[in-house]
């Protein structure tokens, strides 16, 4: 049994902005069910405190002149012991963990996440008398990037794994900010955390972690190339002997069409025809015409370039000519939101959008749509296509990252051997052409149903993927040159 400290800046159901929260909520739970001793650690944001109510203070420490308490709770609905880093000056703010009410980064994000990393390091080195020391700290994304770098200063330390959920967000700050953080001077160097005159939190993980992984095998390869590496591809190639890819799993309790509490009608593979009831409800919700036979395409996600939003907008004039409907849930760049709102106003029979974040509606779109649109320019893993597969909602995806690893294109051969699960398009095909192919498949009801069955049968649970993490933890502790005594 390994002792794992799982450090993250968001975890569902306590706080969520995207896929990182889904993974941080479900992987620790899967690890605990495989007998690992896991503690989850994250900041005690105002929204988190509202969800957990009062909890016990188990340690206090002064960090950067501020009093920090460690609060203990359990991740709701699980046995996962959870430690909350309570520093009201930095975390007792409403709303998004990273953005203020104007959708701008909090002005003191560098200070906030440096403090968080310092506390994680103190816990990792058992300096807070919690009577527990991890063998390994599992760090996730830039907000935890300083942990491997700071731990490297210790004479003995737990091993460190840094998981890349998205290379595009690196935690970059100017020198003046770095100068205020009271970090070791040698962190400002191009071989350490300096990156083209900026201070990079992510480089802390990439330079110092004993192991690095990305959330899909294809993304782990892609980030070693200039096209996807955001300037860090050289460093990743340099460290390639410790870089690997493990696909994300999904929480199969939360995302289960057979028991989903948000649906007007639950269904499974054997009762697939009942999916239609969810489609009718969704058309009604979005005020789209109640046409049971018109292909309904869903989209859920952040409205940012990464998600292929430009491609969707560019395709819309042609798509409006096809016998389809489109239901969108998302928020992000205001100009994208406005563009979709304009399209929806001009074509209310064909396209509708809800701008915002809505967990229940996300489930209803997964269940009520026939197909799911996910033409991401890059996608580290992607979770929505995995939910779609489970809900018999065929994903239409670009052949990148985790999308390529999890969806099998419907072609003559894959239709024959029952491995087809959706539409995967590459550079040779446009999004409109891909959707035309989808429509052809949709019109062939027996084939469509077979592909739905193939999709719903695919196992994207955590069970064997958590085993892959346990193996990686073991390899990583083996790589640690200065293990702590109980390691
Ligand atoms: P990313 O982490 O890049 O945003 P993922 O596909 O990995 O993308 O995960 C996104 C997660 O956030 C999914 O669980 C998805 O359902 C959810 N999500 C994204 N946007 C919304 C929204 N507007 N409302 C509800 N859930 C959303």
Compact overview of the structure:
By secondary structure, this protein is an alpha/beta fold. 38% of the residues lie in helices and 20% in strands.
Q: Any overview of this molecule?
A:
With 487 residues, this protein is an alpha/beta fold. It has 2 domains: 3-249 and 463-479, Glycogen Phosphorylase B (Rossmann fold, 3-Layer(aba) Sandwich), CATH 3.40.50.2000; 269-460, 3-Layer(aba) Sandwich (Rossmann fold). Helices cover 38% and strands 20% of the residues. It has 20 helices and 18 strands. The protein has helices at residues 19-33, 46-52, 88-91, 109-124, 146-151, 175-180, 201-208, 217-222, 226-229, 233-238, 275-285, 309-319, 334-346, 359-368, 384-390, 401-406, 412-416, 431-443, 445-457, 463-479; strands at residues 3-7, 37-43, 56-63, 66-74, 81-86, 136-140, 159-164, 172-174, 194-195, 198-200, 211-214, 243-245, 295-303, 324-332, 351-355, 371-374, 394-398, 423-425. The strands form 3 sheets. It has a 9-stranded mixed sheet with strand order 3-4-5-2-1-6-7-11-12, sandwiched between helices. Strands 15-14-13-16-17-18 form a 6-stranded parallel sheet, with helices on both faces. Helix 12 (309-319) packs parallel to helix 13 (334-346). Bound molecules: adenosine-5'-diphosphate. Residues 18-19, 22, 300-302, 329-331, 357-359, 362, 382-384 line the site of adenosine-5'-diphosphate. The site of adenosine-5'-diphosphate has 16 residues, from helix 1, strand 13, strand 14 and helix 14.
């Amino acid at each position: 049994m390994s002792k794992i400290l799982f450090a993250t800046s968001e975890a569902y159901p306590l706080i969520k902005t995207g896929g990182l929260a889904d993974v941080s909520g479900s992987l620790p739970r899967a690890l605990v069910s495989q007998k690992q001793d896991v503690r989850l650690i994250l900041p005690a944001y105002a929204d988190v405190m509202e969800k957990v109510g009062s909890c016990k203070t188990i340690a206090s420490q002064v960090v950067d002149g501020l009093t920090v308490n460690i609060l203990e709770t359990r991740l709701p609905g699980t046995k996962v012991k959870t430690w909350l880093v309570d520093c009201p000056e930095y975390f007792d703010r409403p709303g998004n963990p990273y953005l203020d009410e104007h959708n701008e980064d909090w002005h003191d994000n560098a200070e906030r996440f440096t403090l968080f990393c310092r506390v994680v390091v103190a816990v990792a080195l058992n300096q807070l008398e919690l009577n527990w020391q991890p063998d390994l700290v599992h760090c996730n994304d830039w907000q935890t990037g300083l942990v491997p770098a700071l731990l490297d200063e210790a004479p003995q330390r737990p091993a460190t794994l840094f998981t890349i959920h998205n290379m595009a967000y690196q935690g970059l700050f100017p020198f003046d900010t770095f100068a205020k953080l009271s970090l070791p001077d040698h962190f400002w160097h191009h071989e350490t955390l300096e990156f083209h005159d900026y201070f990079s939190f992510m480089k802390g993980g990439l330079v110092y972690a004993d192991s690095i992984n990305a959330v899909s095998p294809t993304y782990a390869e892609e980030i070693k190339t200039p096209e996807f590496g955001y300037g860090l591809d050289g460093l990743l190639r340099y460290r390639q002997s410790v870089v690997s890819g493990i696909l994300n799993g999904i929480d199969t309790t939360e995302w289960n069409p057979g028991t989903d509490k948000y649906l007007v009608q639950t269904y499974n593979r054997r009762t697939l025809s009942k999916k239609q009831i969810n489609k009718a409800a969704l058309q009604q919700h979005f005020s789209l015409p109640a046409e049971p036979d018109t292909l309904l395409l869903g989209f859920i996600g952040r409205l940012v370039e990464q998600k292929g939003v430009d491609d969707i907008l560019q395709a819309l004039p042609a798509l409006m000519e096809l016998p389809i409907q489109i239901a969108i849930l998302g928020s992000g760049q205001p100009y994208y939101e406005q563009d979709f709102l304009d399209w929806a106003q001009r074509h209310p029979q064909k396209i509708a959008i809800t701008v915002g974040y809505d967990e229940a509606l996300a489930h209803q779109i997964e269940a009520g749509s026939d197909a799911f649109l996910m033409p991401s320019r890059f996608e580290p893993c992607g979770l929505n296509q995995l939910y779609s597969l489970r809900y018999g909602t065929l994903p239409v995806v670009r052949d990148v990252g985790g999308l390529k690893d999890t969806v099998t294109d419907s072609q003559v051969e894959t239709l024959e051997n029952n491995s087809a699960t959706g539409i995967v398009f590459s550079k040779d095909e446009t999004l409109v052409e891909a959707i035309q192919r989808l429509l052809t498949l949709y019109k062939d009801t027996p084939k469509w149903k077979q592909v739905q069955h193939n999709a719903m049968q695919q196992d994207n649970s955590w069970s064997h993927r958590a085993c892959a993490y346990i193996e990686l933890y073991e390899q990583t502790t083996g790589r640690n040159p200065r293990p702590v005594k109980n390691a």
